[in-house]
Amino acid sequence: MAGFEVLERDGLARLGRFDTPHGAVETPALLPVVHPDPDRQPVAPAEMRERLGVRAVITSAYILWRTPPLRSVAEAHGVHGLLRFDGPVMTDSGAFQQHAYGSVEVGPEEILGFQGRIGSDIATVLDIFTEPEAPHDEAEAALSTTLARARAARSSRAGLLAVPVQGGVHDDLRARSAAAASELGDVLAVGGVVPLMEQYRFVELARLLAAARPRLAPGAAVHLFGTGHPMTFAFAALFGVDLFDSSAYHKFARRGSLLLAEGTVALDELRDRVCYCFLCAEKPLVEVAGLAGPDRERRVAFHNLLTSIEEVGRVRRAIRDGTLWELAERRATAHPALRAGLREAKRHPEVFLPTEPESRRAFREVTEESRSRPAVVRFHDRLDRYSAGRTDALTIPRIALRPEYLEHVPLEDRSGQPLFWKADTPLGQVPVELLDLYPVGPYLGIDEFLRPPRHLPPSRLREEVARAVGDRADLGRNWAADWTRFQVSSLLAWQYGRAIATVLAEGLEGERSRRSGRLRALRRGGAILLHVGTDGVPRPTFRGAGRLHEVLPPGRHRVVVADDAAPFVSAGRSLFSRFVVSADPALVPGASALLVDRSDRLLAVGRLLLAPSEMPRLARGVAVRVSAHAGAPEAGEREDGPDGPELAGGV
């Protein structure tokens, strides 16, 4: 999809946007399944749009095609006129009906042409629905047919096309299908999963998403067919699902069940008022339970739809705030099957790590399983490399990296040999100098309240240090200044490698916040070269980028800008993906990078929105947001975090 644009992200999950003939769709988005017969549709699409803000819906082209009265209206006035809905309409092709009833009376070319005639904004290929239990050879044959139909559909349709991703529960077929669909589709619709969700087989769902997701083109919207229950939205969004469709709001209403973000409740079991939304202000649910059939069904369906839309809003907010893993973990506690699915997802960190952000504002523990998120996996991998060769580290309690604590911890023994210290944290033992780094520094879990490091008395720390080193080191010396220098070089080594850190640290002075005592800036000759945010990560100012440019090998920590965009980036404009020539593949979203032209002239410093692998595959949108630039080297240079720029004297 040439028009898909990423606006914000949290890992694979994106706040995005793409255009259709009837307006833009902002993702993640819920597309309510609308029955084309108004007598069978409890909530009119126009009412969804007016009262709930629904911007797009999905309906069945096959039901329209096989129902002559509806078909004639749709062909005469378009599907939008039939539904009385002026927003984007996606149409399904009848594959699920083929699965449910054994066959459909229409061929793939005919149903695709029909979708074009009725003005569908997003038409869907008639694929072969593959049951999860289908053996490999049967699933492979069905996939080959689906892909052949998709190729024919692409050659005949100029408008937006949804290409299903099939393959059953076979990883190789899902991967093959995802790669092929990515060459053809504007929307990549992962199908064949409704039985898995209906049977709470979220472990298998996680496996097939893990197989397919790395091969889905980043320039297309990802749709997961049948993601109807709101408790599954955050789980799906973790895998980068942009579009959900839901008929569950109506199906559950027909059997008198309320959809909640935490599960399902029978309407007739309610005895107290449990909701105070605007619908319940009109008529509380306990009163709705006593209504006659059609009115009761309509009101419950409307409430279920409202609940679903609210949950999509929570997912969107979590993506913007960088808290989607927390939301997914909270939702997973609603059902053991969903929790098992999330645990299975975490067994595939390789799927998430290429787009896992460098850091987030915070790391909140929901359960102990929070400690296996991809961010933690990457931290431990880097920690192993950083700590290689350090087999003689000493252990002390976790401390806040403030001068009043650090002054008591010696960095050398009496013979001048270095002493290395590590501390126990919820994420395992971590070198003391790295305790401010994400995810350890901003980690918030029960340990922070059972054993808060800020409450450790210095006298107890001195006792622990003395127990560890005995008389090997000078315990009467104030080691705070030494620690500042050591922490500066350590953070640079973590970020750029020890060889670069040795050169870069020369002449650098560390400054600490007056409020928190934490390291907040690295200066050289009075100028700030790097800020250290509350995530503990050193990020260069434009002057710092100049120094990095001198010492880093060509290509490292760089994004190369096309000639046409170089003047604009140098003036502080964001770098759009279509103007990226190349990028260091080791970079990740949120990381700081040097923006250079083709001759390696430094233009600006910025933070990545897209992963390097995504940049050449997205024709629209921002790839890197400039934070400081050649035209105004101090522009945007400030400390990242609640402590602000207030700094104490340096060392």
Walk me through this protein's architecture.
The protein has 651 residues and is an alpha/beta fold. The chain folds into 3 domains: 5-353, Queuine tRNA-ribosyltransferase-like (TIM Barrel), CATH 3.20.20; 363-480, no CATH class; 498-650, Archaeosine Trna-guanine Transglycosylase, Chain: A, domain 4 (Roll). It is built from 25 helices and 29 strands. An 8-stranded parallel β-sheet has the order 6-5-4-11-10-9-8-7. Strands 24-28-27-26-23-25 form a 6-stranded mixed β-sheet. A 5-stranded antiparallel β-sheet has the order 22-21-20-19-29. Helix 7 (171-182) links the parallel strand 8 (160-165) and strand 9. Helix 7 (171-182) packs across helix 9 and helix 15 (324-332) packs antiparallel against helix 16 (336-346). The longest helix has 29 residues, at 293-321. The two termini are 53 Å apart. The model is unreliable at 635-651 (pLDDT under 50).
Structure summary:
By secondary structure, the protein is α/β, with parallel strands linked by helices.
Question: What secondary-structure arrangement, pairings included, does this model have?
Answer:
Blueprint: E1 5-10, E2 13-20, E3 23-27, E4 29-34, H1 45-52, E5 57-60, H2 61-66, H3 68-83, E6 89-92, H4 95-101, H5 108-117, E7 122-124, H6 136-156, E8 160-165, H7 171-182, E9 187-190, H8 194-198, H9 202-212, E10 221-224, H10 233-238, E11 243-246, H11 248-254, E12 257-260, E13 263-266, H12 278-282, H13 285-288, H14 293-321, H15 324-332, H16 336-346, H17 349-352, E14 363-364, H18 374-386, E15 394-396, H19 403-406, E16 421-425, E17 428-431, E18 443-444, H20 447-450, H21 458-469, H22 480-496, H23 498-504, E19 509-513, E20 519-524, E21 527-532, E22 538-540, H24 542-551, E23 558-561, H25 566-570, E24 575-576, E25 580-583, E26 592-596, E27 602-608, E28 622-629, E29 647-650
Parallel strand pairs: 4-5, 4-11, 5-6, 7-8, 8-9, 9-10, 10-11, 14-18, 15-16, 23-26
Antiparallel strand pairs: 1-2, 2-3, 12-13, 16-17, 19-20, 19-29, 20-21, 21-22, 23-25, 24-28, 26-27, 27-28
